[in-house]
């Protein structure tokens, strides 16, 4: 859509995504590592899902939660990366009004769903190590179903107002989004209305959801480490820590990437504007690529399941 040069308040039928406005010439080179990471993320998560589905020994609550994490990663990748690559390869910068706000909803809700899944998995490890005798009666298939319903409903309901509030704004003259994806702030700042409430709601909702998950994760692991330090049997400490090592690595990486992204956005005046854009893309790509690999490398049952699957093929 051609840009309007006046202050007309006609509705905007579509937006234009301008990736890396200061570095348009080298974005084609960036598409190569992004496409390789995208293929790695999709292939690794699909392999993990198929392995858990096909191997009867992996039909346990812990692996069901891991399957949920892989499904969330796949949806996040498919929501963001294909559009970014289409912009890089074919210069398809336009995105429809509805499609933009749908992408905004999926990104906000599924990111918090992933954080909530890590929290439930931390509780699973807490019960496994701190209450091993009660584990079979607490962590059941019914528990996983209830946890999945809670994860989806809580985060979808709290994230839904973000795109609704943005969609209700009046978009007057400009339709160029200086980003590769439809983030709330990148889109809302194009409006001719006051966006203070939009920014405030996203800030409060985001930090409430992610913050509560992080607090519960820290509490779970503090209880785990306290119990582990009391174990005096030889090799018991290493065995106990190995059961939650993969999960702890994923949480640490997820939190670190998110923290770096938040810091770069807060220090936007001191950092080139293209850096937060790149970090935002990588945050939707690198964790999905690494999550199944970390679990596959560090978990003996999953490695054995993948080997069995390859032998069948």
TrEMBL record:
Signal peptide coordinates: none
Gene3D superfamilies, sorted: Rhodopsin 7-helix transmembrane proteins
Positions of transmembrane segments? 30-51, 63-89, 95-122, 143-165, 204-228, 240-263, 275-297
- Domain (G-protein coupled receptors family 1 profile): give its ranges: 44-295
Q: Which key words tag this protein in UniProt? A: G-protein coupled receptor, Membrane, Olfaction, Receptor, Sensory transduction, Transducer, Transmembrane, Transmembrane helix
Annotated membrane topology is: Multi-pass membrane protein
| Localisation | Membrane
Q: Which GO terms describe its molecular function?
A: G protein-coupled receptor activity; olfactory receptor activity
Q: Does the keyword S-adenosyl-L-methionine apply?
A: no
Supply the PANTHER family for this chain: OLFACTORY RECEPTOR 56A5 (PTHR26450:SF424), OLFACTORY RECEPTOR 56B1-RELATED (PTHR26450)
| Protein's UniProt name | Olfactory receptor family 56 subfamily A member 3B
């Amino acid at each position: 859509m051609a840009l309007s040069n006046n202050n007309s308040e006609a509705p905007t039928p579509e937006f234009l995504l301008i990736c890396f406005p200061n570095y348009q010439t080298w974005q084609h080179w960036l598409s190569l590592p992004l496409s390789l990471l995208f293929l790695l993320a999709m292939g690794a998560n699909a392999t993990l899902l198929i392995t858990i589905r096909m191997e009867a020994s992996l039909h346990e609550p812990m692996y069901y939660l891991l399957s949920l994490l892989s499904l969330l990663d796949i949806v996040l990748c498919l929501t963001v990366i294909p559009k970014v690559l289409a912009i890089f390869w074919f210069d398809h910068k336009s995105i429809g009004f509805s499609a933009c706000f749908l992408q905004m909803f999926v990104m906000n809700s599924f990111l918090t769903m992933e954080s909530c899944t890590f929290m439930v998995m931390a509780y699973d490890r807490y019960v496994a190590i701190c209450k091993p005798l009660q584990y079979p009666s607490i962590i059941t298939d019914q528990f996983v179903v209830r946890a999945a319903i809670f994860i989806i409903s809580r985060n979808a309901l709290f994230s839904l107002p973000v795109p609704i509030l943005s969609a209700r704004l009046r978009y007057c003259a400009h339709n160029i989004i200086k980003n590769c994806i439809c983030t709330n702030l990148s889109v809302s700042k194009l409006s001719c209305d006051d966006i203070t409430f939009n920014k405030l709601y996203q800030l409060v909702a985001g930090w409430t959801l992610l913050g509560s998950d992080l607090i519960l994760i820290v509490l779970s692991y503090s209880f785990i480490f306290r119990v582990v330090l009391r174990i005096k049997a030889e090799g018991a400490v290493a065995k106990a820590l190995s059961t939650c090592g993969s999960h702890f690595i994923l949480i640490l990486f997820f939190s670190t990437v998110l923290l770096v992204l938040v810091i770069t956005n807060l220090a936007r005046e001191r950092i080139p504007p293209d850096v937060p854009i790149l970090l935002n893309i990588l945050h939707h790509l690198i964790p999905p690529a690494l999550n199944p690999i970390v679990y596959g490398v560090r978990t003996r049952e999953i490695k054995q399941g993948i080997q069995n699957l390859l032998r069948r093929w």
